[in-house]
Amino acid sequence: MLASRSRPVLVTALNPSIDAEWIVPRVVWEEKNVLSGERRWPGGKGINVSRWLKHLGVPARLVLPLGGGSGRELALGLRQEGVAARVVRLSDATRVNVIVTTAAQGQLRFNAPGPCLTAHHWRCLCDETRRGLKSAGCLVLSGSLPLGLPPDAYAQLIGMAHAAGVPALLDCEGEPLRLAVAARPFLVKPNEHELRAWRGSAWRGADACRTAARALSRVTGGWVLVSRGAAAAWLVHAKQGICLQALPPKVRPVNTVGAGDALLAAVAARIRAGDSPVNWLRHGLAAGSAAAVTPAGRLPGAARVRRLAATIRVASGAANEGAFKFASGRQSPSFRALSVRPSDSYCER
What we know:
The chain has a single domain (9-344), classed as UDP-N-acetylmuramoyl-L-alanine:D-glutamate ligase, CATH 3.40.1190.20. Strand 9, helix 5 (174-181) and strand 10 (187-188) form a beta-alpha-beta unit. The chain contains eleven helices and 15 strands. The radius of gyration is 19 Å and the shape is globular. The termini are close together. The chain is an alpha/beta fold.
């Protein structure tokens, strides 16, 4: 299925949050820690993806549940940034996640589980997603599931995307990931830790990571993009024997919150534009790296993303071989043919 270049990206964010950053010189355990600064912004993985899409100039529509004062705060923040959203109202308050940023000790993250949704809320979210899919070019599903939703919630939404002929991109972990991959999303984006947990073994190293990515791709029949921090990322399609590898740019991170979401947003943008998988990987890594050198919750200039993308070299090889050569970002005949094969469950609209 080939995502339409004129249609928006639909993001269903099931567990949004307000992200609150507490800034301290250092954390002193069992003592009073005085904040030197505090910031708040709309957060959660799906929200991050939507904000990045808007920042990259890609039309995006958001479906999400919101409730309480924190939900009103989040909705206001989205309106101020021009992010279009369809909201399912909750009686319980939207969660607040806390990020503790220190000068020398890195970051600590504390994520709340979120409000408890009812069967009625889930039906409303499904209805809004189904309605949004009628005009969407791509569906992004990202983040944890809130309390009350079935563990196969993402699998159900991927099924709706298949019925609408829309490619689904997935970023989650644990049981929701295990159930969702059986629904055959177009692309799955685990990090190395999440892929290792899905595989169920304590492997390490690039070769083992590539093998696990290929195994996941065989289950989904589609693409798997594995982010590995500063190490080389992999983009694999086992059925087509494609394996792409690229090192992210060398940067000095000041923040890791939302880097994977920036990567996924840039990949969705390039898929929607009909670009080659080489450029999915290149622009995704550039956006993730740009996010890592930007304070949490803020978005870097688009020029920085473009500069970083220009420095990334992508190597290509067969998914079951170790030899790689550098790949062009042009839309090659093999990628063009791959993009429109019905067996990839990705139909041109």
